[in-house]
User: Fold these one by one.
Assistant:
Number 1:
Amino acid sequence: MDFTGRDFLQILDFSPDELRYMLDVAKVFKNYKKTGQSHKYFPDKNAVLIFEKTSTRTRCSFEVACHDLGIGTTYLDPSGSQMGHKESIADTAQVLAKLYDGIEYRGFAQKTVDDLAKYADVPVWNGLTDYCHPTQALADFLTIEEHFGSLDELTVAYLGDTRNNVANSLMAMSAKMGVNYIGCGPEVLKPDTKLLKQCQEVAAQTGAQITITSDLQTLANTADVIYTDVWLSMGEDKAKWQERIDQLKPYQVTMDVMNLAGPDAIFMHPLPSFHDLETSVGRDVHDKFGLSELEVTNEVFNSKRSLVFEEAENRMHTIKTVIYLTLKGRE
Ligand code: CP
Ligand code: NVA
């Protein structure tokens, strides 16, 4: 399987076999990390990490993964480059490709990361756009497979804003891996029709069922994974908080929802999460709208059924896999 020189822009760009292979390689890297086996395969390589939005997990995962692989890094923060302000994406891409062996980008439009990939002749890795979050979906599926032992006959249910970046990648990954997917949320926040159709076409090949519904009862004794994400994503207008709360409060993940899904259902979330008042945004929303927990209750978040921290760890192992496979052969 050859990934050398390829970009990692969205899940739909990869075949089920390629995604299967990435999960298997991630398990090898996880084992190397746990057993202290050095894997500095790229001592002469450098990568640039561009973040036009903030990050904890993705940035740290890229930095640790690069360090473990022997790759040097430059971090560009939201105010740290000329890209898009004083210099076009095309010019920036060509400059960076002269200096670096790989480019990570987190930002707004998917077109920006697609254009970086078009103009840079080194691999470009998508660290989240408004449209998708493909490295998150890889980590999610590694976590699910580790927990259940296999992906066979599983159903993943995403509750809330079913058209956001995380949901889009989770739906695409489910379709590719033959895992049933339920997107459960209000009618007004349904997935993009074109993406849904693409995922349904993939699902028809892999045997997955994709269901988009507003009815929570669809989860009853069916969902193995209950997944949610923030109600307002980075870059969205904060004036929308009241509207989103009204739309999404019925889809808050409570212990009742977990029990509806079944006794063995697990809880997942990409993080960061608003499940208590320990964040300034959480307190702000509480002061304005009176809610002390948003997309998930503190009880579920901190329960034994919650795999959120294992999921966060797996970001690093899967991101390392993407970097390794796309640079392999260029050591
Ligand atoms: N899940 C995730 O992408 O987290 P960060 O925003 O902290 O990178
Ligand atoms: N949907 C969230 C995911 C953060 C990891 C956002 O874009 O803010």
Number 2:
Amino acid sequence: MALYSEKLMDHFRNPRNMGSIEDANGIGEVGNAKCGDIMKIYLKIENDVVKDVKFETFGCGSAIASSSMATEMIKGKPLSEVKKLTNKAVAEALDGMPPHKMHCSVLAEEAVLSALKDYGERTGKTV
Ligand code: FES
């Protein structure tokens, strides 16, 4: 069996929503101290819905694929759903990841939650 799923390879080769959002109102940046990879998520939230989302990931292929999938999973979604995003759900949506790469999907969960937290701090809203 191939180490990486077709879907993961597709999101790595053709990442969705890569880039930044100039007027983002929630930005989250997280890193993994062990591998040194960094992931940044930009959210544009309107009426408690993620209108737009982009990411910048300086990291491995699994981290890039995880960011790409995570942005697809939260785009257009209400915050009540977005805050429930888990790394497990991201990995499953990518048709699985090798166990030693699961920490890459954790970065995606953490970056999204960190961006939500930033949005809460900027707006004074409880997210
Ligand atoms: Fe560090 Fe993938 S190896 S995020």
Number 3:
Amino acid sequence: MHFEVLTLFPEMLTPVFEASIIGRARQTGCISVTCTDIRAYTKDKHRRVDDTPYGGGYGMVMQCQPVVDCIRGVKEKLTGSTRVIYMSPQGRLFNNDICKEYAGYDNLILLCGHYEGIDERIIELEVDEELSVGNYVLTGGELPAAIVVDAVARRIDGVLPAGECFEDESLQDGLLEYPQYTRPREFEGLCVPEVLLNGNHAEIEKWRRAESLKRTLAKRPDLLNKES
Ligand code: 4H4
């Protein structure tokens, strides 16, 4: 699967996509990730990408030509199914189901806005959908794009280390995950629960299920009311 991130700040994302699981998946060829600088598609000597909004108002708006040409320039090099996604608070809220849906594409093009957003005609001409990572306005779409790449890439075969599997539900059976512990057995007077140390897997599973229920009730009772 190929991820193409269109951004004014590729330097923001390069380190993120070179590290950890995503970095390893790129090296092994499970996925490819490219960050393309929208500014490379400008045609004026000042490499301008934004301008003031028609009708007045504060802030700047990203102009059509560099963004539309960047999307088209990238698209024409891709084969297979492709979806163009604009990271915006106005989009549908990113969740596990969307993650699953996106993992079915050959290519995802993630457009990162900046300033007050982008000229509406870009969306009309080239964007398949807007996608939001939360009901708040960020400075740019780069962090949301990194979230999407990370979450979707984890669902691609070979990305997660052998033995690990993505959580098909973002929660286990709709519950929050049980508490996790690792060495040492005691830290500043706090001990690992005995049940986890005796190797009785049936008992461990029972304890984990009880803990998941307990913490879901305490932290996210709303999850317990959901239709399963
Ligand atoms: C895009 C700000 C659109 C405002 C942006 C608008 C998010 C988010 C985000 C930089 C860009 C911001 N992207 N989830 N939340 N005019 N992106 O804040 O549509 O309100 O994904 S606008």
Number 4:
Amino acid sequence: MAANTGPKQGSFKAISRRRGQFALAAAIVASALIFLADALSPIDGAVAVLYTGVVLTLAPLGRRFVIGSGCITAVLTTIAFLIGHADDPLGGALLRYIVSLVAIAITVLLSLRDRSARTTLAEQARILELSHDTVVVRDRSDIIRYWNEGAERLYGWTRGEALGRRCSDLLESIVSAEEISASLEQNGTWSGEIIRTRRDGTRLILASRWLERRDPDGRPVGIIETSADLTESRRALAERRSSEQRYSTIFNSAGFAALECDLSKAMRLILDSRGPSQDCEAWLLSNPQILRAAANEIEIYNANSAALAMFEADTVADLTDGNALLGQLPDSEPALAHIFASLVAGSSLAEIETRCATLHGRIIDAVLRVSVLPDGQDWSRVLLMAFDVTERNEARAKIEQTSVELAHAGRVALLGQLAGSIVHEVNQPLAAIINYGKSGKRWLTRPDPDLTEVADCLEKIVSNGNRAAEVVGRVRALAKKTAPQVSSVDMGALVQDAVSLLAREARAAAATIRVEEANIRGPIICDRVQVQQVIVNLLMNALHATRGIADRPHEIRVRIDGTAENFIKVAVEDSGTGIEGNPERIFEPFFTTKSDGMGLGLSICRTIIEGQGGRVSASNNDGWGATVGFTLPLNIPAEARWSKPNILI
Ligand code: ADP
């Protein structure tokens, strides 16, 4: 539509300019003729009255033309009067002169008034055009007489197409005809909603006002109708209602506790009390009275049945504030501080696990998730979801305990396999101690005791005693049943320790064990005992795999690689039989190829390594033998700590 307006207006202007020029020329010619007739002709009449025609001709050109033509014609009238009647100025000619001037003046005044009325009307018509609403004027036969731009835009018919057509032919309307005609008859107006089909067939909902047009005698001659489009707002309203409905259905039927809260007062209290640029969480924790006061200001105004059940409340009113919800437990303070601090930092989402007390005092573990709803940016509408994780945590604790026990059982089983070696490792220094003791005694009981030799024997006794104590210490460490304990561990030393423990096994298998280290950046944080258990297990399996191999040396290489930025890699490479079938299967519980095997060693190893955020791997070497190893992060990620209870899967 807008594209049509420009050229239309342009051509309209050109036409009116031409008309103006023509009117001006006609007025000049007419003025000249009237002047000549008035001044020179012998007619005794008020010829100058004809100047009113000149004024009227120029009236459409504007106010200036009306006033100008009035002045000029008055001057011409005066000149003609003076020329024609200078000798007898006070006769009947004077009266005609005055009548002419009055006629010109009245014409000027009336033209000016008419112009201002026309200007007002034109402005009003322009306003109708500007209106976003549709304005349609119809006559008694429903023929369209006026159709504004709003109607063009909304209904899709141009003014040219609409004018002169029956409105009912153009627009299919669903209206209550009886109600409308009754209202028009009674009040002359009607307002209400109508449904109309526009040109492209789509339906519109309109808020419509109808006004009856009447002629000067009061007879109805048609209707002026103005309508506003409600379709979009109705659709938005319906959508909003349905989304609210959806929200409330989800809220009420959710299987988890959901509460709607107003946190605005609590947040205001915190923001007003807090000094600038402070770490909000730390500040709240060091001011528990403010934290509790803020919790007191939390207003819980809605809760679903799962929430009532979780907090053992009968009604929403029982859950009055944040303190009722989180109890007075010291554990809940850090959770509250974290949530408030997150919101203060501008986050619209905060999540934390905490312990809370139900209204009956039962302590539960809960994950709280707070999210600011889109229409509650001042924290006045906040959704609090609570997930009871008590059972999950208990189950996890049990699984952790089971894992610890299994790992211990694995170590004890390992030690059982190593019993021969251990006895040997302890026996050797013991035998040496006995020998050195005997020879020391001999040196002493000589007639001339050699104290230097005695001292030497005692020193050897001490060092062999230490060696035996070391072996016993290592065995005790492995045999001890401890909860997972992290410490700073030198992986090279840990591997060397395990290799020493297996020295006799290696000799028995006629195998050499070499340890290679590359790019070690420093100690890592892990559970020393458990990781050593894994290394011993891998070495035992490697030694076992080389047994019976006759055509090549029995070689085992332990490679410790610290090249990667975030983890360390340990691989035990052997020249043994290689792994039968899919190498990854060796980590499955009860997978064994040994007649006396249990098939649990490596699955325990996997649990240990994954529990510390690492990965195990196994593959056959290109030539012969296999490589079984693991990676461990330099520090155990918190979420990985013994949280993968896959040993029983
Ligand atoms: P077990 O020693 O009781 O069999 P493990 O879980 O320690 O239990 O080992 C499972 C199986 O994995 C072994 O029986 C063996 O078949 C295979 N395996 C483990 N390490 C190696 C290796 N280095 N070379 C070949 N096979 C291996």
